[in-house]
Predict the structure.
Amino acid sequence: MVTFLIALAALWGGYAIYGRLVDRVFAPSDVTTPAFLKNDGVDYLPLPTWKVFLIQLLNIAGLGPIFGALGGMLWGPCVYLWIVLGTVFAGGVHDYLSGMISIREGGKSITEIVGNHLGDTALAIMRVFLVILMLLVGAVFTTGPAMLLVKLTGVGLVIWLAVVLIYYFLATVLPIDTIIARLYPLFGLCLIIMAVGIMGGMLLGIGGHTMPEMVLANLHPAQPQLPIWPLMFITVACGAVSGFHATQSPLMARCLKDERYGRPVFYGAMVMEGTIALIWAAAGATFYDGTGGLAAAMKAAGPGGAVYDICLGYMGAGLGVTLAMLGVVACPITCGDTALRAARLMLADWFHVRQDSAQKRLLLAVPVVAISAILTQMDFSIIWRYFAWMNQVLAAIILWTGAVYLCKAKPHSAAYLIALLPALFMTVVTTTYILQAKEGLQLPTSITYPAGIVFALACLGLYCTKKAYWNTAAR
């Protein structure tokens, strides 16, 4: 219990100290935000800051800090370190910069921001890469909740797929304050209440379970034992740092009234997600009395079954079960619909199609939802594995973009380091992973470990070369 509480305090201490430093480095101003400059009543629309925060939280969270944290806890309480350090020094910086740069650049989608700072080649690659990623997210978060609804109701999978996709279509084309701004704050509050309820149950010792203390050891029960590096850093994903968040931050950058609210909305939502991840990671090992029990439960009933059991055990059959169903059904749906909405807006930026009329939105939304519907017929596990890796690759790219932006904006300072250091780390993680993973090249660690470091150093060398050029141009 002690190390859990220390980790929790470190998370929010990181928000208060490092989050403020990041905010000071970026230096928010009193410029008029895109919510007012481009107010179209559809995507660009000033909303109350508390509502923007809760929508941002639900957009970025979904099932990520729940399922990812449970998967990460299979390696043991050492996952606390990654959740805390990843959230404070990588995830919070990533989400803050992607949202704030979007505000500074008129509410642009992340594809256009990357292209503006990394060049036309990067723009072309990112446009294709990110639209595909958003379609994969839409497919993953259509199939997952639909399968759970089949188990709960007995109604056929095709029917539930159709229901979810119809909802996605409406959420993609309707103004943001029609569905998303009305429902998401409620769902966001429920996600927080669920996490607080689980934490309370653990701290009170309900069920006689004891919270494990953190140990710097690999406790994964698999035989042969799976290595912490780099697998745990990909598995936790949204609970520490996630490239998907960069596709969502611009959605709220179009609704924020003042740049000064960027820290509580963008960095703060990431810290709240890290908190939820920390709670669920602890709950997994606590409720099942260790990583072995957690692994057995997830194998028997999947992560959704584990979530249901934990909620039931700590909060009872009334509120606990209700929140569990919200967590495993509603939360992924709220990621899927905003992913497809983001895809529509990326395509709109790409092809310069204004989105202030229903006809123009339909022109892009219909193919987006249709392609995602087709992808739901693919093997769910295959889609998920590639999504997880692409997600973290995107996080590395966005951090590199942030480092470039800060270097250009503040050429004679060390401001860029807040993005450069986590960019290097995530580059090593993602390169090492794809070289040794089953869905990658399956190379031995004697090759993958040094190769990941060498590639990251090559990226650093290229960055330093460009940095010298930018500094010269700024004189």
User: Anything to note?
Assistant: The chain is about 75% helix and 0% strand. Residues 2-224+248-379 form a domain with the Amino acid/polyamine transporter I fold (CATH 1.20.1740.10). The chain has a mean pLDDT of 88.
